[in-house]
Design a protein that fits this description.
The complex is a heterodimer. Chain A has three domains: 126 residues, Response regulator (Rossmann fold), CATH 3.40.50; 228 residues, PPM-type phosphatase domain (Phosphatase 2c, domain 1, 4-Layer Sandwich), CATH 3.60.40; 169 residues, Heat Shock Protein 90 (2-Layer Sandwich). Chain A is of the alpha+beta class. Chain A has 19 helices and 20 strands. In chain A, 40% of the residues lie in helices and 21% in strands. Chain A is elongated. Chain B contains three helices and seven strands; from the N terminus they run E-E-E-H-E-E-H-E-H-E. In chain B, the strands form two sheets. A five-stranded mixed beta sheet of chain B has the order 1-2-4-6-7, covered by helices on one side. A two-stranded parallel ribbon of chain B has the order 3-5. In chain B, strand 1 and strand 2 form a beta hairpin. Classes of the chains: A alpha+beta, B alpha/beta. At the A-B interface, loops of A face helix 2 and helix 3 of B.
């Protein structure tokens, strides 16, 4: 059997829609009405333009068939008003008119009509025109809904970006970058910065600074910044050294970053007196030190692979130590600075930067001169990479201004009685810095956050003496010259790595003395001791960089006594609740 | 062409010549160098004689090649670097990971 062939009628196959007819001729209205209804459409009829506009407002039809000459309001006027009411919808208006004059037909289109048909017309032609208009209308509707979807997607993304940006800037906060001896320029090329610049005060006074540059820029580069900032601030607050922070950050980044993405970084550690800089530079351009008078720059080259490239077993944590003179300025920057390009494509370059640093210029103007120079050089050209520059002025007076950071709100616990002892052998001393752990225990047991910096300094100085002089036999006389200063720290590193014998015992005893607490810190080493009678007692009289340790500790605690042959030292630190509160408010 | 790959007649040594800017725009081409490895390649030679500039994503691409070629066992030589390019490689201390001439 042969199946009957059903002719495919594209006009009839489209879904039924709503049509508005405006014509003052009753017969015309009836004929159109019957035809459209037969095709399944819903039909509204108006006898003049005025009524057409009213019906349009009420029923929002999909298509309008419009006569031109009508009483009260003609088809031109009605079409203009209807088109003004459609908003973002596309509602086709087809004029059905007996007029053939070209000017009148042009006017149909001018006032918003989409097509026209001469009366008398063949029904098949009208149906075809309606079908064509319906196709256009559907295309328009699809486009419109896609546009809306895109716009709402864009709004959602924008909101998510704002939340993420807020989260990002809370975690990767600038720490104490607002200190008066720090100046910096941050110029990210997207909302998220692939460069990071972090600064935090150490518990012992002094400063940690980290400048990092992740591969690429924008969001993918910025994601890695969050764990790094977390590690940097948490470990600095606990008293860890930069080499420990380097190791922790490297391990984290190696684990989370895909191969090919890494973080070129420099970590700087400035001591409380701003007389010593310890630096680890892995992959950043030379960090430069400028003397107050200008002249030759001191250069701290990248010595290591960037963070996140190799795992910790291959990571070189060794740091460089240099002595600083008052008024010297340290400059660290990312490659975005030297690779900033002029509209001609020429790069700012390392030599140009160094010209700015060595030329005759008031020291306090150097930073601004570089920034202005960069802006002028780029001359409004496009930025290709994130760009960061920081200047640190070695001025302990400026550096130790009252902090604007939030103070720790926890209150010291009531004085208790406890004792804690640690015996460290050579192997432990080679691999572990026990100070952060001891500080953590101390804070957990007694909550002396307001005393943290002083306690850390006492502990750190006495422990360093026991290790460096008692066990490693280093002579601090070495530190008197800049060359010797470097030699001293090289020797320290080598002797410590080779340490086979010896021990250091650390004991902390805390007791209550009425409302006050008394902490006794005793450190004993296996070394030969020293002639403590000869040690300088006056801090002010001592302007050299070595030998400040003991007078400084003496100034910080109630009593400092040596025992035996000088290989055992005991420091007594007394604190009271009132003093704790006061320090919290003023710190 | 900014990137040209040559394979030795015994199929063991791949030489990659890179000219102009070695940056992210070369990512796709550079990837193909090692992704099309039919096996049996024992050494990669990256010739940077014509390279004017490289950025950190180029360093990243070298690390990807290194990983693909066996990580610590990879045999990759970077040769004929111009001073500026050499400087970028040395700042990143890539001499610890690659053989720089």
């Amino acid at each position: 059997m042969i199946a009957p062939v059903v002719p495919h009628n594209s006009a009839a196959s489209s879904a039924p829609f709503t049509v508005l007819i405006a014509d003052d001729d009753r017969i015309n209205r009836m004929v159109l009405h019957a035809m459209l209804q037969k095709d399944g459409h819903t039909v509204y009829v108006a006898e003049n333009g005025q009524e057409a506009v009213t019906l349009f407002e009420q029923h929002q039809p999909d298509l309008v068939l419009m006569d031109v000459m009508m009483p009260y309001m003609d088809g031109y006027e009605a079409t203009s008003r209807i088109k003004a009411l459609t908003g973002e919808r596309f509602v086709p208006v087809i004029f059905l008119t007996a007029m053939t004059d070209a000017q009148a037909l042009v006017h149909c289109v001018e006032c918003g009509g989409d097509d026209f048909l001469h009366k008398p017309y063949k029904h098949a032609i009208l149906k075809a025109k309606i079908a064509a208009m319906e196709r256009v209308r559907q295309l328009y509707a699809t486009l419109q809904s896609q546009k809306n979807a895109l716009a709402s997607h864009h709004r959602r993304l924008q909101r998510e970006y704002e939340v993420a940006e807020k989260l990002f800037s809370t975690i990767v906060h600038p720490g104490c970058l607002d200190a008066p001896h720090l100046k910096y320029l941050l110029s990210p090329m997207a909302i998220f910065n692939g460069d990071i610049l972090l600064a935090a005060r150490k518990p012992s006074g002094g400063l940690h600074i980290m400048l990092g540059d992740f591969t690429g820029h924008g969001l993918p580069a910025a994601v890695g910044a969050m764990p790094v900032a977390d590690i940097f601030y948490a470990m600095t607050a606990k008293g860890y050294a930069i080499s420990d922070i380097v190791a922790e950050a490297n391990q984290k980044l190696k684990a989370i970053l895909p191969t090919g993405v890494f973080c070129a970084a420099a970590l700087l550690d400035l001591d409380a007196t701003y007389s010593q800089l310890t630096i680890w530079n892995g992959g950043l351009p030379d960090v430069l030190v400028r003397q107050p008078s200008g002249g030759t720059l001191r250069r701290l080259r990248s010595q290591h692979l960037p963070l996140g490239v190799v795992d910790n077993t291959r990571l070189d944590r060794s740091v460089e130590v240099i002595e600083l003179m008052p008024g010297e300025r340290i400059y660290a920057y990312t490659d975005g600075v030297i690779e900033a390009s002029a509209p001609t494509g020429e790069m700012f370059s390392q030599p140009r930067l160094e010209v700015y640093l060595t030329q005759d210029c008031a020291p306090e103007q150097v930073f601004e001169t570089i920034c202005d120079g960069l802006t002028a050089f780029r001359a409004g050209g496009p930025q290709r990479d994130d760009l960061t520059l920081i200047e640190i002025t070695c001025d302990a007076g400026l550096a130790n201004h009252p902090s604007t950071e939030a103070t720790i709100s926890s209150v010291a616990k009531a004085p208790a009685c406890w004792h804690m002892a640690l015996a460290l052998d050579a192997m432990t001393l080679r691999t572990l810095d026990p100070l952060p752990q001891i500080m953590q225990m101390l804070m957990a047991l007694q909550g002396l956050h307001a005393h943290r910096e002083r306690l850390y300094t006492i502990l750190a100085e006495l422990f360093a003496n026991a290790l460096e002089h008692g066990l490693l036999g280093l002579d601090s006389e070495l530190k008197h010259t800049p060359q010797g200063f470097v030699a001293y720290y090289t020797a320290r590193e080598q002797s410590l790595a080779a340490l086979e014998h010896g021990w250091i015992n650390i004991a902390l005893t805390h007791t209550a003395v009425g409302p006050a607490g008394q902490l006794t810190l005793r450190i004993e080493d296996s070394g030969p001791g020293f002639d403590y009678q000869r040690c300088p007692r006056d801090l002010a009289a001592n302007t050299t960089h070595s030998g400040r340790g003991i007078p400084l500790v003496r100034a910080l605690c109630q009593a400092l006594t040596y025992h035996g042959v000088g290989n055992c030292v005991e420091a007594v630190y007394v604190w009271s609740q009132e003093e704790t509160d006061v320090s919290q408010h003023t710190s | 062409m900014a990137l040209v790959t040559r394979i030795s007649s015994d199929g063991k040594i791949v030489t990659v010549d890179i000219s102009g800017r070695f940056d992210f725009s070369m990512h796709q081409e550079f990837r193909q160098v090692y992704e099309q490895d039919p096996g049996g390649i024992t050494q990669y030679i990256i010739n940077l004689h014509q390279t004017e500039y490289m950025d950190s994503s180029a360093l990243g691409m070298l690390l990807l090649l290194r990983e693909h070629a066996g990580g610590d066992r990879a045999n990759i030589k970077i040769v004929h670097c111009q001073p500026e390019v050499k400087k970028i490689l040395t700042i990143a201390n890539f001499q610890h990971l690659f053989c720089l001439d």
